[in-house]
Design a protein that fits this description.
By secondary structure, this protein is α+β, with helices and mostly antiparallel strands. About 30% of the residues lie in helices and about 15% in strands.
């Protein structure tokens, strides 16, 4: 991936301010823009309990994909805030509610996504916050 990153970084000058392809910068920037929100399929494994402790134990694996915050993150694309929330335990935390409120308070247009899935198996015991 570092090899590809170097190639892409060398091409950026064409799209940046003053470059001959400056008007295409939003398309260029989209190449690097993603919002990854982990869900239950990322942290639930056979033999592991379905609870917050298991989820939080696996969170460090996703730090590189989520700017260090797997539970909630935001990416701004074209002036719109894309907000990702991991509610794969079917609950949101106080911190996640505060994070969303902070994003909404900016006054920017927002689009929120979450990792909510279908019904939880009756044999799984989830913790509630």
């Amino acid at each position: 991936m570092k090899f590809l990153r170097k190639i892409l970084d060398k091409q950026a000058r064409w799209f940046e301010e003053g470059g001959p392809l400056e008007k295409f910068y939003p398309l260029w920037e989209a190449n690097d823009t993603f919002l990854y929100t982990p869900g239950n399929h990322d942290w639930e494994y056979p033999g592991q309990p379905w609870n917050d402790a298991t989820r939080e134990a696996y969170y460090p694996r996703f730090a590189g994909l989520t700017n260090g915050s797997p539970a909630q993150q935001v990416v701004v694309v074209g002036g719109v805030r894309l907000i990702g929330i991991d509610n794969s335990n079917y609950q949101v935390t106080t911190e996640q509610v505060a994070f969303v409120a902070e994003q909404l308070a900016t006054g920017d247009p927002c689009l929120r996504g979450s990792t909510s899935t279908g019904s939880r198996p009756a044999t799984s015991a989830g913790s509630r916050r």
